[in-house]
Amino acid sequence: MATFLLIHGAYQGGWIWTHVASRLRGAGQRVYAPTLDGCAERAHALRPGITTESHAAELAALLTYEDLRDVILVGTSTGGMALLKTAELARERVGHLVLVDALALKDGEKLSAGPTRADVEGRLFAELEPTTRAWALERYTLHPIGVMEQPVKLPSFWSQSWNASVVYCPRSSNPPEAHQRRAADALKARWHILDTGHYPMLSTPDALSRLLIELGRGV
Predict the structure, then answer these.
(1) Helix (H, G, I), strand (E, B) or coil at 7
(2) What are the extents of the domains in the chain?
């Protein structure tokens, strides 16, 4: 049995992983899919001061208090930023890093802006079938602005050696392939392709779940 920590991206919550989490649990895996501070059902706590680093500190504490080891960290979109910092903070508890169409910034880099709701509905969610798209849009919430505006702080992550995989989704326009290739090269990561858009946990949950289970066998 492998242990997975599924990390959501901007404007999302743990709900984005519902279909994948149920499949992983059905296959006998241990799964955590928390909602980060200020997001989704925790949107009432949205406030200044929430950053990638505070999100990561929360996730690292989860690993510590649950006494988890050899954890497979899975991050999507901006969840990749939280994944990197969590790994840096909890190095001894990490078994594998999986970046699923994710952002992997270098120390001091930052985002310019996140997508608008209209952009999400018309572009990022465009390939989802209508029922799934409507379900996801009902759960779409604001994201802590500090994650978008503050440079990430990763003083030691990129100088370490990691067991890593990058899952590239060619129908997604963001993050671009060049960004994900950069991460794969720097991490000496395995390269996987899912022929779908930016939300494979919604569009192709079976394929993503199978891939994660396969990766879990190697931890």
Answers:
(1) strand
(2) 3-216
Task: Give the tens place of pLDDT for each residue, 77-120.
Answer: 999 999 999 999 999 999 999 999 999 999 999 997 666 667 77
CA 153 – CA 208 distance, rounded (Å)? 29
Q: Is 77 a catalytic residue?
A: yes
Neighbours of 116 (CB within 10 A): 11
Cis peptide before 205 (omega within 30 of 0): no
pTM: 0.94
**Hunting for tokens 């990490």 — which residue is that?**
94
Question: Which residue bears the tokens 């326009």?
Answer: 173
What backbone torsions phi and psi does residue 4 show, to the nearest 5 degrees? -115, 135
Nearest one of 141, 148, 76 to 112, comparing CA atoms = 148
Which CATH number applies to 3-216?
3.40.50.1820
Which one from 77, 165, 203, 209 is the annotated catalytic residue? Answer: 77
